[in-house]
Amino acid sequence: MSAPPSSPPTPASGLAGALTSLRENIRYDLPASLVVFLVAVPLSLGIAVASDAPLTAGLIAAAVGGIVAGALGGSALQVSGPAAGLTVIVADLVNRFGWGVTCAITVAAGLLQIVFGLTRVGRAALAISPAVVHGMLAGIGVTIVLGQLHVVLGGEQQGDAFANVIALPGQLLSASGPATLLGLAVIAVLLAWPKLPKAVPSWLRGIPAPLLAVVALTVVASVFALPVVRVEIGGDVLDAIALPILPTSDLGGVLVGVLTVAIIASIESLLSAVAVDRMRPGSQTNLDRELVGQGAGNTLSGLLGGLPITGVIVRSSTNVAAGGRTRVSAILHGVWVVVFSVALLGLVQQIPMAVLAGLLVHIGTKLVNVGHMRELHRHGELPVYVVTILGVVFIDLLTGVLVGLGLALLMVLRRVVWASIEVQEPRPGDTGPSSSWRKEGGTWHVVVEGALCFLSVPRLSRRLAQIPEGADVVVDLVTDYLDHAAYDHLSEWEDRHRLAGGTVRIDEVGTMGLVARRESTAGGPGDRRPGPVPRFLSPWSVWQARHDATYGEGWGHGHHEHDGHAHSDDADPILTGLREYHRRAAGLVAPYLSDLADGQAPHAWFLTCSDSRVVPNVLTSSGPGDLFTVRNVGNLAPLGTEADDSVGATLEYALDALHVPTLVVCGHSGCGAMQAVGRDVPGDTALGRWLTGAKESKARWAAKHPVGEHARSGGWGDVDQLAMVNVAVQLDRLARHPGVATAVAEGRVRLVGLFFDIPTARMHVLDGDRFVPASGDRLGAGATATRPEPATTAFPASG
Questions:
Q1: How many helices (H) and strands (E) does the chain have?
Q2: Domains recognised in the chain with CATH numbers
Q3: Measured between alpha carbons, how far is 309 from 294 in angstroms, rounded to an integer?
Q4: Which domain of life is it from (predicted)?
């Protein structure tokens, strides 16, 4: 069965809109509901068996989950019912309190879920570590498999996981008979059916595998009259409906059961709803409403003698794949379960127990997801997953979850307060022209990553003690936190090592280190030093020169003065920047550049000034391959009578070869070129000849160009007004270019004007005849960009 288009329908309002939506979507929802119903019936029966509950309880829960939770929940596509994730909990409750009290616990858990939803704690449940949730489900799956394998092999499951493991070898040796063949045949069908070749007709491949396996093997058992144990209902569904029994003892245990069912059912439902949203783009679940719907379903299910319900990812994903578009498909699936339970329940009693056991073994194995293991291993959370599984399987579910949560919190705490400290000995040949300050014995390298606090000081002391006296040392501080104890220890070691004849270079990559600590305490009450800035945003002077000022000789030998500037033979800022790039950025950017090796497809032609303070990729949060950048003095586009081939060539190449969709002109505040234009620089110089391309801008500014007038009313100075008018004029020039005019008329290209205010680091966008802030919320609102503290109010007399 093919799925409809991926985008969900637009909801209509009012009764008429609801009827219209129903008519439009029923052709999708009706067949989807039938498919989900066929999947739900065998799964509900199998889960009832695994829960040690009456089989009718599974059908009641499936009907209530579909109708009540489907109608009231916050997800339009999620399908609810009895879930494998609660089987171990319910089985324990039934064994401890009996079925009647277990139903009362289900009612109380449902009421608690309604409270969860009304108090808007839905998203809080998502704060639980996925490693714990997946570990809990995997532990439940392992428990189901260990128990039901005995039934598949013709025996009976034992009392606990230990007993099941110990008895399994003997059960394997004695496995024989028709029950074993039926159970193994079910598992084989479930594994093979999804892998059928495409040559098989689609209508045949569309039959749900659980339904096919249960029906086919039941027919085989009936035709051949196999001597196997079959399902015993003990009456019809209506006879099974009974009020729950209130507990009279062990109220503490009952309360724990209520909390456990409510919390686990809520988490599983919310995670399933989030997963369903990812399957259908545009779908968005109201998580608090979903908790209310789940709570209402559990309350009614418990009152009618049904199992606890949750949102079930198997049924929900089936609903999406089958084409369900609204909550009608989930509700109808519940209606079909009711019809089946009342009219066709006799057929259920023909199903062999070994067939349901085989179905449960398959369900249990699916809960152990290898993909989740790989993902958790990549994030270093596999130990939490494993510990949770072991706790659930060999102790109990609640203990296993609590142990998993405890370990997850400990691992988070370790990551927060634990620093990685690595000491690298000098390598052979670790000297060279770029490191002339290093001694003959080479350089020791210390890398500190993470949060360096007092807990790490003992390890830091041991690592630093490995470095011999008099050695050259480079310390990389990749730290985002440095407390006072670690700061003192590292500073004292640095002083001692220098007094012993060694050199120390502190290279700070993180947001907090020795230099940052010293700078933060060096200023007085009015000090306005900026906070730590990542190196890809900060100038060389921030992360290179401050080492020279702070560490003196530790920064390197061979400093000298030239033209009033301090230099180092071995610490040239360009070479140092290149080394930094290769050390920290080259490996990160290489995959993107590899994809671009065969060509480029930039998103914009970006014309801006040569001013070193304007960094296009930083200002636009772009990377390699995004901008086709052109820079010149004053961001001019001389394409008319004073045409410049360098600008024209890049423009034509961008339009004809690269097919860029956007042409950008970006000016900036305090522009030296605009200052020169205002002073009328002589035309007998290269700069004067070039700036003739800005004469039109000056003339239109003097003639009260609207852009300039709006800038004036916003408090901008003359230079910045002219710079803004210049952006508008250059855009006009581009628009008159034949190739650009044609592309704009055809809708292939748009023109964008930008203005960067350097003192505030804010970008403004040309919107009509004024520049507005580029924050996004004011674009098109007609607001003029204001400059509270204009830096340049008039053209200076000299540059």
A1: 35, 14
A2: 25-368 (no CATH), 445-581 (3.30.750.24), 600-773 (3.40.1050.10)
A3: 7
A4: Bacteria
Q: Which of 130-139, 169-178, 329-338, 431-440 has the lowest mean pLDDT?
A: 431-440
pLDDT per residue over 130-154, tens digit each? Answer: 888 788 778 878 888 888 888 888 7
| Cβ-proximal residues to 464 (8 Å cutoff; 6+ apart), any chain | 423, 446, 493
Q: What is the pLDDT of residue 688?
A: 87
Structure tokens at 761: 């680091």
Structure-token pair, residue 498: 């220098």
What type of residue is 596?
L
Query: For the chain, what percent of residues have pLDDT higher than 90?
Result: 33
Binding residues for Zn(2+), by number, are 609, 611, 668, 671
pTM tops 0.90: no
Tokens in use for 604? Answer: 């914009």
Residue 126 has pLDDT above 60, yes or no: yes
Binding-site members are 609, 611, 668, 671
Give the other-Cβ count within 10 Å of 431's Cβ.
16
Across 129-138, 213-222, 313-322, 425-434, the highest mean pLDDT is recorded for 213-222
Q: Is the dihedral angle over the CA atoms 727, 728, 729, 732 positive or is it negative?
A: positive
CA distances to 213, 372, 773 from 407, in Å: 41, 18, 48
Q: Which of 507, 503, 497 is nearest to 446 (CA)?
A: 507
CB-based contacts of 621, cutoff 8 Å, min separation 6: none
Q: 80 has which bridge partners?
A: 311
d(CA 548, CA 559): 9
For residue 415 the two structure tokens come to: 């990551």
Q: Say how many residues make up the chain.
A: 799
CA 256 to CA 262: how far, in whole Å?
10
- Report the distance separating Cα 231 and Cα 351, nearest Å: 6
Asked if the model's pLDDT at residue 776 lies above 60, the reply is: no
Say if CB 101 and CB 53 are below 8 A apart.
Answer: no
The neighbouring-strand residues paired with 137 are none
